């Protein structure tokens, strides 16, 4: 049942290329230049009337939502807010009939996410669900459903569900852009072409998994570490940090790289591991200067950058190159090394990788 892998988590990490392909599937037209989302029943007029988007989810799905905000704002130019479902419910969010609420849930049964969906509907908003379970509560109650075809996810730590949620956001963002005319057809075709190359690029990263076994063995003896990044790299850093905490029980914090000097830099001391994500070309120089700040205080820095870049090499202790893609698409690649790092760190510490302590796969209580 684990298809030759020692744990479900590793099997599911390796199923990501297939999950990407299945989630894109027939949603890209035969010419490969645009997105077809027949499951979205919203009319052009309804899409045109959207004034703001609220993305609501928990945990890893919330982290996918943070990437989703970037995607929708960049492609469709609609303002997006992202909330943790257990907060959204109780903060009297301003929801109008022109608000589109997107709920994200692998299981489709998370109590707080479902309650947020109901609150959104009560206020007259239209709800789109991104879920991995056809026929789940969230799928049944939403107005429109985008199913992620990741297949059953058994390991408590979410991997392929998160990345297929990202793919769903790319498709949805492109679909909104096509409908609203916020991006030119040629630009959309270019993004679609790059999207289709992601599965092969994930496979290339998986072929280098040993690198992250090595990194994990170096961090496994530490009790604290940091993930830093800017922009989309920060969103991915949050997910990498959650994954590591969840299964290795090593405490980590994800920080927006430019925010460190406003307090957290005080925690950087000799030998502390820092995982620096620097895949976003236009932010590279700024991130490098933040890396220098932690290096100067004795941190051991592991860097992730886009293939072809050279600037990070001198600034960090160890570096891994992510296959080149559009900066907007890089989260779908750069999270994979962090999943592998968490997996191997959990293994190195002798933990139960698939069933971490205190946690359940589906959180149906508030
Ligand atoms: C972490 C993880 C959780 C879930 C969260 C939401 O690896 O799996 O943070 O993402 O409990 O679950 P769903 O997506 O089923 O609503």
From TrEMBL:
EC number: 2.6.1.16
Subcellular localization: Cytoplasm
Subunit structure: Homodimer.
Assigned GO CC terms: cytosol
Function, in words: Catalyzes the first step in hexosamine metabolism, converting fructose-6P into glucosamine-6P using glutamine as a nitrogen source.
Keywords: Aminotransferase, Cytoplasm, Glutamine amidotransferase, Repeat, Transferase
Catalytic-site annotation from UniProt: 361 (for fru-6p isomerization activity)
Catalytic activity: D-fructose 6-phosphate + L-glutamine = D-glucosamine 6-phosphate + L-glutamate
GO biological process: carbohydrate metabolic process; fructose 6-phosphate metabolic process; protein N-linked glycosylation; UDP-N-acetylglucosamine metabolic process
Residue ranges annotated for the SIS domain, each copy included: 43-182, 215-356
Superkingdom of source: Bacteria
Main subcellular location: cytoplasm
UniProt name for this protein: Glutamine--fructose-6-phosphate aminotransferase [isomerizing]
GO molecular function, one term: carbohydrate derivative binding
Span of the entire protein shown here: 244 to 609 of 609
Keyword hit for Repeat: yes
Transmembrane segments: none
